[in-house]
Design brief:
The structure holds 2 protein chains of 2 kinds. Helix content of chain A is 62%, strand content 10%. Chain A has 20 helices and 10 strands. Chain A has helices spanning 2-13, 16-48, 55-101, 104-107, 112-130, 132-154, 156-163, 165-203, 205-210, 214-266, 272-313, 386-392, 416-422, 437-441, 450-459, 463-468, 486-498, 516-529, 570-575, 579-595; strands at 338-346, 361-370, 375-380, 401-406, 409-410, 423-426, 504-508, 534-538, 550-556, 562-568. A 6-stranded mixed β-sheet of chain A has the order 6-7-8-3-9-10, with helices on both faces. Chain A is elongated, with a radius of gyration of 36 Å. By secondary structure, chain B is α/β, with parallel strands linked by helices. Among the domains of chain B are: 1-169 and 308-333, ABC transporter type 1, transmembrane domain (ABC transporter transmembrane region fold, Up-down Bundle), CATH 1.20.1560.10; 171-284; 438-503, no CATH class. Chain B has helices spanning 14-26, 30-62, 70-116, 119-124, 127-134, 136-169, 171-178, 180-218, 220-225, 229-282, 287-328, 389-395, 419-424, 440-445, 453-462, 466-469, 489-503, 519-533, 545-549, 568-574, 577-586; strands at 350-358, 364-373, 378-382, 404-409, 412-413, 426-429, 438-439, 479-480, 507-511, 537-541, 553-558, 561-566. In chain B, the strands form 3 sheets. Chain B has a 6-stranded mixed β-sheet with strand order 6-9-10-3-11-12, sandwiched between helices. In chain B, a hairpin with a 5-residue loop joins strand 1 and strand 2 (364-373). The chains are: A alpha/beta, B alpha/beta. At the A-B interface, helix 2, helix 3, helix 5, helix 8 and helix 9 of A face helix 2, helix 3, helix 5, helix 8 and helix 9 of B.
Chain lengths: 596, 594
């Protein structure tokens, strides 16, 4: 709870003016409301005194007081709930910006759906703390103090009698509340079981049918379904009592007040009008008592949600040096070397909690040097670690030990922005945003002239496809636009990287969805366009990287870490009759088969 | 609240149709509903007694200056409170019991119906949605029945009761009190008209923000590599602003609505005081009567005030029930035909007659397959990835239906078979053996009561399961974790084979895993397989040399067509697709004796 408020106070503090105005409005609203029983008291005493003709005047007072209360109630809600919405805006903004700074190692631990549900449901639960979670407690305090003040003024003794009910209500609410909480947790858990059965059933739909498991599954489901109904009724046995019990207790207080107050009134110690006013104040007190439980609930849920949000908010971006010397200007215009020195790497263990097992090393003591302007290809089976190597260059991940250098400088000692400015990276998964195609191609440089975009589209072999799109370069693509084929997406991703004209270009198995002729043609164009660049190509298909200056074949060793088993130019590797040659032969066969 | 509630696309008539669908679930429990409503009446009467007793206390005892009779009033008061509590508790309990029973029945029917649906339906349905139908959507429907309908009945009974009491006490003052009701309804009507589009904008804004964040998360790597975080954050700001603005509009609506209701309530109180005062002067009303009127008017406005909120709950519940009804009306495509056949002799003969199949229309996965497999024959199906091998196997137990041609089992078209009987003819060992929650033995028997425990244990023995399972804490009775967690791929496959052996079905379909099984279990798998193949018609989707060796015939499937048929030696000599596949896939294994 403390943690919750430590994080929330800065957000509220920005709106302290509004907050103060809202709270003042709340107090004024309550003051006007609490005057009404006073007017009633005067009115009834007037009736008792036989002055019935004055009552329209009192009626006027009541309307006036209610108007005052209504006006301030408007300000109260508008400001106090409004503040929570403004603060929510700020929280969402900060949450979003923070997400954008987090490294890939973070996103491998949290699923997209998980982060989304935190940004929606948990954010809302925290917002409730800022809105109703602030307004109702203040309202409760103000109302309670006000009512007691007036009640004490009418009769301290009667107030004492009325007071007897309050602790009983609070204690009972607490006991019942805890019981309800425990039982509803059991109901929730059973609901999770039901979900699991349906989930498994849907996931195994074919197996269930092939093995005629429908009836067995029905029996399993029926068992959980019955158990759920049973547990729910156990919960109902308690929860159904809550509201009736509250009503009865409040009624009991009312009855006690009526009888004791009535005795006082009969003896003339208080007037009938005072008794009625007292009953009204008592009525005003009941709502805050009910609301209290609700407010506690809002705060508990808010604290739990804040904890879940904090898991994201406390995640740290990649460390960058405090006083990094930026790259020299010439860096951007000349090809530079890439160097891996004794690099060790393991992916962070999966799952939000991790399973405790240390993840296996993907790289151990890996070294490789690419000279400025060279084109180097990494090949190997799936899982041989070649993509991992590519991803260490633009610091998608950082090595666990060892160094990755570009132009002789350790990437960890450079400003992150500059590293990424120097490295054009085409990832395996060619994601396009829901933007017009030209904005996707110019994604890295919003100011790129149209000619530049058209040139890279040409180089990536995309011009023909674009001519066929409904709006040419203005065609919306991505999730909410036209669906591009895998090959079109991959080529768009290449064009996007080419546009930036970076000294280093890294292609991470980017053309798997196009046929080998197209792949060869595009890579040739890329090579021509990138003559001045240092290029690292991770490839699955060997026929397309024949012209690389050097080819490195990776194989996992007995522990699963990648090592270079063969290297050299294509012809040399073929002549060696090793694994590369065998792989090449197999791929030629496959291509032949595909043509049959 | 669900995102689809109150959508303008929902035709108003569907509410009535929906009710007709839900009614059969409600009717069996009519005594619960009757009892619930009866208890509502009792608790309403008890609630109404409160202000009336106040009136008696003031007029008969306090005003007269004699407090001695008050103790009797207290007794009465406590008695009505106790009665009210009992009735309200009983009502809440019975209504919930009713709701839980109805939910249980609907949930059971939803699940039952899902069991009848064809795999193709599941292919198109995200699992999360299926789960939602059977869980939270049913809960929402319960909300509609127990909270929604019952709450509205309770409110209406209370309103009618108050009106009755007020009219009986003093009909002129009662009419004056009711004068405010139309204005309250007008206020509520205006409020609903303004809040509805506001809520719609909120839903739109929430969806837009979520979609944007989802896209950011999916494309995070690209976003960061291209250093576009700042630009993207600027775009997010626009959506975030619209989100806040939409919410502020609803805040405004509520900020205005509540004070207006407060004013109307106060106006009524003022009228009661002003007009009632005159009545007291005229002697037709007592002071206690006036106080009772004031208290009733408080009671009177509360349900009307809350009606708006209840209305929103109902809208959400309606949308959920619509989704459930839609699911229950999804026609199962693969069912036993009206006059099903079970052939007298079922030796396990298979025939494909010019069969074509596509998962998506026009995108043929199998084209014009014609193939006859004799009882007891073992046929191996080979082909490159995506050739249609697994699909071919899925057509046999009618997991999918062919669009053209026919599949015959024991001389009868599978579409004319009794479906459970047809499926009993087959045992399939898939690439990835799915294990259900339960023990190892449960997973071998799979709830089939015709398999005795002894049979299952024998199958475990012959299928080489016992060999490793005896090391588990409870041997074959060891419960497996979710989806057989903790078992290796090879062990799971052995369970799959044992499962097939225990079933003693005539036809065995093996869809072998390409993933290499660890060497320890490799030999065990081979031994178990050899036993399983004996005396059965077998279709072996082969990736491994050793299983092809035992085959009587090899079928080469390429791009959905049968391209070559023959023995290993014949096909190899022909130098076609098979030869290339062979070189490709088996090059690293020991060469077959030619």
């Amino acid at each position: 709870m403390l943690n919750l408020w430590r994080r929330l106070v800065p957000y509220l503090a920005r709106y302290r003016g509004r907050l103060a105005f809202g709270i003042v409005s709340l107090i004024l609203c309550r003051v006007f409301l609490l005057i009404v029983p006073q007017i009633l008291e005067a009115a009834i005493d007037a009736v008792e005194g036989g002055a019935t003709e004055e009552l329209w005047r009192y009626a006027g007072y009541i309307v006036a007081a209610a108007a005052g209360s209504a006006i301030f109630r408007y300000f109260m809600r508008w400001h106090l709930i409004g503040v929570s919405r403004y603060a929510e805006y700020d929280m969402r903004r900060d949450f979003y910006r923070h997400l954008q700074t987090l490294p890939a190692s973070f996103f491998s631990r949290f699923r997209v759906g998980d982060i989304l549900s935190r940004s929606a449901q948990d954010m809302n639960a925290v917002r409730m703390v800022l809105g109703p979670g602030v307004m109702y407690p203040v309202e409760t305090v103000v109302t309670t103090i006000g009512c007691f003040a007036f009640m004490l003024a009418i009769s301290p003794r009667l107030t004492l009698v009325t007071l007897l009910v309050m602790p009983v209500v609070s204690v009972l609410m607490k006991i019942l509340g805890e019981k309800i909480f425990r039982r509803s947790e059991k109901v929730q858990a059973k609901m999770a079981d039901i979900s699991a059965v349906v989930q498994e059933n849907a996931a195994a739909a074919r197996v269930v049918r092939a093995f005629s498991q429908e009836d067995a599954q029905r029996r399993t489901f029926a068992r959980e379904n019955e158990a759920y109904a049973r547990l729910s009724m156990k919960l109902v046995a308690v929860s159904a009592a809550l509201f009736p019990l509250l009503l009865a207790l409040i009624g009991l207080g009312l009855a006690g007040t009526l009888v004791f107050g009535g005795t006082l009134a009969a003896s003339g110690a208080i007037t009938v009008g005072e008794l009625v006013a007292f009953l009204f104040y008592y009525g005003y007190l009941t709502w805050p008592m009910i609301a209290l439980g609700w407010v506690v609930n809002i705060h508990q849920r808010g604290a739990a949600s804040m904890k879940r949000l904090a898991e994201i908010l406390d995640a740290r971006p990649l460390p960058t040096p405090d006083h990094a010397t930026p790259l020299s200007r010439s860096f951007a215009h000349e090809p530079v070397s890439i160097e891996f020195e004794d690099v060790t790497f393991a992916y962070p263990s999966q799952g939000a909690t991790g399973n405790g097992k240390p993840a296996p090393h993907v790289l151990r003591g890996f070294s490789l040097r690419v000279e400025p302007g060279q084109t180097v290809a990494l090949v190997g089976r799936t899982g041989s670690g070649k993509s991992t190597i590519a991803r260490l260059i633009p610091r998608i991940y950082d090595p666990t030990a060892g160094a990755v250098r570009i132009g002789g400088r350790n990437v960890r000692n450079l400003p992150l922005d500059q590293v990424r400015e120097a490295v054009g990276f085409v990832p395996q998964d060619s994601f396009l945003f829901s933007l017009p195609l030209k904005d996707n191609l110019g994604f890295g440089n919003a100011d790129a002239p149209m000619e530049a975009i058209e040139r890279v589209a040409e180089e990536a072999g995309l011009t023909g496809d674009i001519a066929g799109f409904p709006d040419g370069y203005d065609t919306m693509v991505g999730e909410r636009g036209v669906t591009l084929s895998g090959g079109q997406r991959q080529r768009a991703a290449i064009a996007r990287a080419l546009l930036l004209d970076t000294p280093i270009l890294v292609l991470d198995d980017v053309l798997s969805s196009v046929d080998s002729e197209t792949e060869a043609r595009i890579l040739e164009a890329v090579r021509r366009a990138a003559r001045e660049r240092t290029t690292l190509i991770v490839a699955h298909r060997l026929s397309t990287i024949r012209d690389a200056d050097a080819i490195y074949l990776l194989e996992p060793d007995e522990t699963g870490a990648a090592r270079i088993v063969e290297h050299g130019a294509h012809e040399e590797l073929l002549a060696a009759h090793g694994i590369y040659a065998a792989m090449y032969r197999r791929q030629m066969l496959e291509e032949e088969l595909a043509r049959l | 609240m669900s995102p689809t509630d109150a959508s303008p696309a929902t035709p108003p008539t569907s509410d009535r149709r929906l009710l007709k669908e839900v009614l059969p679930y409600v009717l069996p429990y009519w005594p619960f509903v009757t009892l619930g409503v009866a208890l509502v009446l009792v608790s309403t009467v008890a609630q109404l007694a409160g202000p009336y007793l106040v009136r008696i206390a003031i007029d008969d005892h306090i005003a007269g200056g004699d407090a001695s009779g008050l103790i009797g009033v207290l007794g009465l008061f406590i008695a009505t409170l106790a009665l009210g509590f009992a009735a309200a508790y009983g009502q809440a309990w019975i209504v919930n019991l009713f709701g839980q029973r109805v939910m249980r029945d609907i949930r059971r029917d939803v699940f039952d119906h899902i069991q009848k649906l064809h795999p193709a339906w599941f292919d198109r349905q995200p699992i999360g949605k299926v789960v939602t139908r059977a869980t939270s959507d049913v809960d929402a429907l319960n909300e509609l029945l127990s909270s929604g309908v019952v709450m509205i009945i309770t409110d209406v009974v209370l309103l009618v009761g108050i009106m009755g009491v007020l009219l009986a006490m003093n009909w002129q003052l009662a009419l004056v009190t009711f004068a405010a009701v139309p204005s309250l309804f007008v206020a509520g009507w205006i409020f609903r008209r303004r809040i509805r589009p506001a809520f719609r904008r909120v839903r739109g804004a929430v969806a837009a923000v979520n979609a944007f964040i989802q896209e950011t998360l999916t494309g995070m790597e690209v976003l960061q590599l291209f250093r576009q975080e700042r630009r993207r954050a600027r775009e997010y700001r626009k959506l975030n602003r619209a989100h806040t603005a939409a919410h502020l509009e609803t805040v405004f609506c509520f900020s205005v609505f509540y004070p207006v209701v407060e004013l109307i309530t106060a106006g009524t109180i003022a009228l009661i005081i002003g007009y009632g005062g005159g009545r007291i002067g005229a002697g037709t009303l007592t002071v206690g009567g006036l106080v009772a009127f004031l208290m009733y008017s408080e009671m009177f406005f509360r349900p009307i005030r809350d009606l708006t909120e209840k209305f929103n709950i109902l809208q959400g519940a309606l949308a959920a029930s619509e989704r459930i009804v839609k699911l229950l009306h999804t026609e199962p495509r693969i069912v036993t035909p009206p006059a099903p056949r079970i052939p007298a002799r079922r030796p396990g003969a298979i025939r494909f007659r010019d069969a074509s199949f596509a998962y998506n229309e026009g995108d043929w996965v199998l084209r014009g397959i014609s193939l006859a497999i004799e009882p007891g024959e073992t046929v191996a199906v080979v082909g490159h990835t995506g050739a249609g091998k697994t699909t071919l196997a899925a057509l046999l137990p009618r997991l999918y239906d062919v669009q053209r041609g026919a599949v015959l089992v024991d001389g009868v078209d599978v579409k004319r078979w009794n479906l459970p009987a047809l499926r009993r003819q087959f045992s399939i060992v898939p690439q990835d053996v799915h294990l259900f929650s339960g023990s190892v033995l449960d997973n071998i028997r799979l709830g089939d009561r015709t398999i005795s425990e002894a049979d299952a244990r024998r199958a475990a023995e012959e299928g080489e399961v016992t060999a490793w399972a005896h090391r588990l804490p409870d041997g074959l009775d060891t419960p497996l974790g979710e989806r057989g967690a903790g078992l290796s791929q090879g062990q799971r496959q052995l369970v799959g084979i044992a499962r097939a052996m225990a079933r003693r079905s005539r036809v065995l379909v093996l869809d072998e895993a390409t993933a290499s099984v660890d060497t320890e279990t490799e030999q065990a798998v081979q031994t178990a397989l050899a036993r399983a193949l004996e005396n059965r018609t077998s279709v072996v989707i082969a990736h491994r040399l050793s299983t092809i060796r035992g085959a009587d015939r090899i079928i080469v499937l390429h791009r959905g067509r049968i391209r070559e048929t023959g023995s290993h030696r014949e096909l190899l000599a022909a130098g076609g697709i098979y030869r290339r596949l062979y070189e490709l896939q088996f090059a690293e294994e020991p060469v077959l004796a030619a």
